[in-house]
Amino acid sequence: MSKAVVILGAGASSDFGVPTLQGMFKDKWARQYLKQDSFLAQKLDEIFWAPRGHTLESSDQSVTIEEMLTILRDWENEPNCKECPDPNLFAEFRKRLYVLIMRAVDLPHLVVPA
Fold first, then answer.
1. 35: in domain
2. Selected residue with higher pLDDT from 22 and 64
3. Which of 56, 51, 47 is closest to 90 using CA atoms?
4. How many CB atoms lie within 10 A of CB 100?
5. Is 2 inside a domain boundary?
6. Would you say residue 6 lies in a domain?
């Protein structure tokens, strides 16, 4: 059975209990996934949070997951970037970010009021 994930912007999905892009890493399910995926947790800290003075706890004040994916794509398309992470990790990093999004917005854990 195929599943579709739709991310609504500007907080439109927050009324339904779906995490917003800004607060994605504060979501209970996303945090559980980060505990299981040490590679992703480490790379998020090394590449996105620590250089900007943030941690998982202040991640909602840093770049969003959407901005991270854009940055990764831009770096991937910039072959002469000397300050970019190892190009071999882009695909794996992006895949793991998508899995984190799917875990955070997995609808079976949501309780929709009647």
1. yes
2. 64
3. 47
4. 23
5. no
6. no
Residue 27 CB contacts under 8 Å (≥ 6 apart), including other chains: 19, 104
- One-letter identity of residue 50: A
Number of domains into which the chain is organized: 1
Cβ-Cβ contacts under 8 Å for 45 (sequence gap 6 or more): 55, 56
H-assigned helices in the chain? 28-36, 38-43, 65-76, 90-104
Show the domain range for 79.
21-108
Q: What is the pLDDT of residues 26-82, one digit of tens each?
A: 878 888 889 999 999 999 999 999 999 999 999 989 988 888 888 888 888 887 887
Does the residue 47 lie in any domain? yes
